[in-house]
Design a protein that fits this description.
With about 375 residues, the protein is α/β, with parallel strands linked by helices. The protein has two domains: about 150 residues, VC0802-like (2-Layer Sandwich); about 160 residues, Rossmann fold. The protein has ten helices and 14 strands. Strands 2-3-1-4-7-6-5 form a seven-stranded mixed β-sheet. A seven-stranded mixed β-sheet has the order 10-9-8-11-12-14-13, with helices on one face. The protein is elongated, with a radius of gyration of 23 Å. About 45% of the residues are buried. The model has no long low-confidence stretch (mean pLDDT about 95).
């Protein structure tokens, strides 16, 4: 059985969480770099990584790497890679994305064009063809160039892994599902603790928490490009992984997960998304402004993605929202609070400096994950508190 080096890109700032996820699957880490984690695995690892990883963007099979400071070196390096081991004669192949950082080659379109020509030349030599119909399965290639080192990977995922399949409706600025999962995993929250999101929007944070609590793998209800790569991955490997994922689900789990939003339409959308995810019975959604945030029990968690106020006209309306959040948090005895935002005055408006502050990139936007740590519940508490 072939062993590959696999690459899992992720949000900048989530590398440690993704590394832990991969290790928990029993897979060997080969490298941790900004925005991605590499690891070793066979065909089963490709299936399990796609279906089980909550914080990854996608899973790539590393085809190779080489140094290139000129377009000629890029062409020759690409030509030398064993494309025929991955792409069949009728495969549709192209460089879907090229990213370059601190490198002499920086034009994505030129990188894509030259690499495609080199791939065609290699395929001509291997298959003894002068023209390729490319009417078969899709084999998109992704390329990273860092300090003139070109890393080439075959995408096994297709649509990004953050697209679980449950979010048919969204808020104006929704948080990506894999980022929401990563934020939860950066906290000590577990299924025995209360979780409230007072700015739930389309419900992503509560839904991801419920899926974790019930042991629902994020890739259970979607398709992957590599399901068609039967020359690389046997269909049996996918079936076995789905069976493994099925065996871990517990839909009878008792949890206290709540999502509030001031917009009743958002609350309706959140409920519908939770239903599509199969966790609507585990979450209580309610129309409620943040000023009315309260809970009778102790040791709960607020994990939330409040409005950022990115537009100039929104700036003035943001301060009262964070102030109200801070006031309600102060009234919640022994709770913890975790807030992701790009709002620079968040701590000031909340009225308290965070115990920890982690920089995370939400797409191209720099955000901060402010962490307010409450006390741990007494060890004797074994019931839901």
């Amino acid at each position: 059985m072939s062993k590959y080096e696999l690459i899992a890109p992720c949000h900048f700032g989530m590398e440690a969480v993704l590394k832990r996820e991969i290790s928990d699957l029993g897979l060997e880490i080969s490298a941790v770099e900004d925005g991605r984690v590499s690891f070793w695995g066979d065909e089963s690892a490709i299936c399990r990584a796609n279906i089980f990883l909550r914080t990854a963007e996608r899973i790539l099979i590393k085809i190779g790497s080489f140094k290139a400071e000129t377009f000629e070196e890029l062409f020759q390096g690409t030509l030398a890679l064993p494309w025929e081991e991955f792409i069949p004669r009728n495969g549709k192949f192209w460089v879907a994305k090229a990213a370059s950082v601190k490198s002499k080659l920086f034009s994505p379109s030129d990188i894509q064009s030259i690499m495609k020509k080199a791939m065609v030349e290699r395929m001509k030599q291997t298959y003894h063809e002068t023209w390729f119909a490319e009417d078969g399965d899709a084999f998109p290639i992704r390329v990273f160039i860092m300090k003139d080192v070109v890393t080439v990977g075959l995408d096994t995922t297709g649509e990004s892994l953050h697209k679980r399949g449950y979010r048919k409706f969204t808020a104006k600025a929704p948080i990506a599902e894999n980022l929401a999962a990563g934020l939860i995993m950066l906290t000590p929250w577990n299924k025995n603790r209360i979780l409230v999101d007072p700015f739930c929007g389309s419900g992503t944070i509560p839904i991801e928490a419920a899926m974790m609590a019930a042991g629902i793998a994020p890739g259970m209800n979607r398709e992957f490009l590599a399901e068609n790569y039967t020359h690389l991955i046997a269909k049996k490997a996918w079936y076995e992984t789905i069976d493994e994922a099925d065996s871990k689900i517990d839909m009878n789990i008792q949890v206290d997960i709540q999502g509030y939003d001031i917009d009743k339409e958002m609350v309706a959308i959140a409920r519908e998304n939770a239903k599509l995810a199969g966790v609507d019975h585990m979450i209580h959604f309610q129309k409620r402004p943040v000023a009315e945030l309260s809970h009778p029990k102790k040791y709960g968690f607020i994990i939330t993605n409040p409005p950022y106020g990115e537009r100039l006209e929104d700036k003035k309306s943001i301060q009262p929202i964070y102030h109200a959040l801070g006031e309600r948090y102060k009234a919640l005895d022994s709770w913890s609070m975790y807030v992701i935002t790009s709002h620079e005055q968040a701590e000031k408006d909340i009225g308290r400096k965070a115990d920890k502050n982690r920089k995370i990139y939400n797409g191209m936007m720099k955000t901060y994950f402010y962490q307010y740590m409450g006390p741990k519940p007494p060890r004797t508490d074994k019931v839901l508190v």
